[in-house]
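Collaborator request, handled under Task 6.
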Amino acid sequence: MKITFIGAGSTVFAKNVLGDCILTPEFGKFDIALFDIDKQRLEDSKNMLENINANVKSGARIYATMDRRDALKDADFVVNAIQVGGYDPCTITDFEVPKKYGLRQTIADTLGIGGIFRALRTIPVMEGIAKDMEELCPNAWLLNYVNPMAMITGYMQRFTGVKTVGLCHSVQACVPGLLKTFKMEDKLEGCKWQIAGINHQAWLLSIRDKNNVDLYPEIKRRADNNNGEYDDKHDLVRIEMMRRFGYYITESSEHTSEYTPYFIKSKYPELIKKYNIPLDEYPRRCVNQISNWLKMRKEMVENKNLKHEKTSEFASYIMKAIYTGVPYRIHGNVINNGLITNLPSNACVEVPCLVDANGISPCYVGNLPEQCAAINRTNINVQLLTIEAARTRKKKYIYMAAMLDPHTSSELSIDDIRSLCDDLVKAHGNWLPEFN
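Structure tokens returned to the collaborator:
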């Protein structure tokens, strides 16, 4: 078996995913191919993984290459973790150009004007990866971790021949995080839940304790009548969305605040403080990660005694289920095709999936509560039109995607949205293909 990791310079994430694989004895002797365009970060990840490999006496054989085709040749699984354009110049561009129009963002990697342009510069690179995979490893599964998840994964599933599933850890973190927020951690053991929707905006449809008691009434009581029963400075946007629409969302408040038109508003600046919204959060994280890397590098790369504990990331469990045939249940991002009956059939949705020797089989969900589907559709509109812009290379679809974006359209006029898109195309320069 061969596992290829594209974007292996993401050393911490490579540790999580590939460390999990190294700790999977069912794989026996297997190959790990690391690829990145940054030679130093690639070598760092190789050294880090070799330390883990030696300490657990795994059968993994690890090699690094800056030749993508060499890395992909004969792969069984390909993990995608690239970030096209990085922090500088592209993330900076995604934040600073919209600021000139008074448009503020928090993360800008999944939706909004930042998510749109992140997709537009990433999809052309994915097209190249798909072409290589179709030639060099046509039976491999692509496990995509790259945001904007629904746009990247949806494009790959609809317009390439690569078997693709999109993976995110927001589903795994949802219930433990919710119960911790409301000081109900004692209910976690044996807890049963159902989640479905779209990436970063999937809905906790039900949550019951080990005795099959519905926990939602108590959660909502605490949300409405906080008597020190939860931290009222944490997760306020998601709690407000649950109070207003009835269901909790999988992804964090800093994300959710920019997927809706209600919270980041120049006309109501007091909302930023009221809901504790961290504007410019992603650039701040990038700066901190860059400044902390030297310390982290010493701890991870130069530590010969480095160990790893298995994480909740789905990748290794998917590989194990396909490789051994022993079934495993995940939540994956797949093309809808009637799985969620009140969302568009060509949308990329996040639903339960069964994994076994046959691959990844999505599960039927049926209708979401109508208000949940309605909110999802506002995000899906942007996703589908961004994909259309990437597919056709026509600028008119960029404008349409931005005009339909909930946050952008709540702040800017049509003329300003069009002008902002033109400015972003110009500012990205060669990081984008030519649009006409």
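The cover message to the collaborator said: "The domain at 2-168+298-319 is CATH 3.90.1820.10 (LDH C-terminal domain-like). The mean pLDDT is 97. Please let us know whether this matches your experimental observations."
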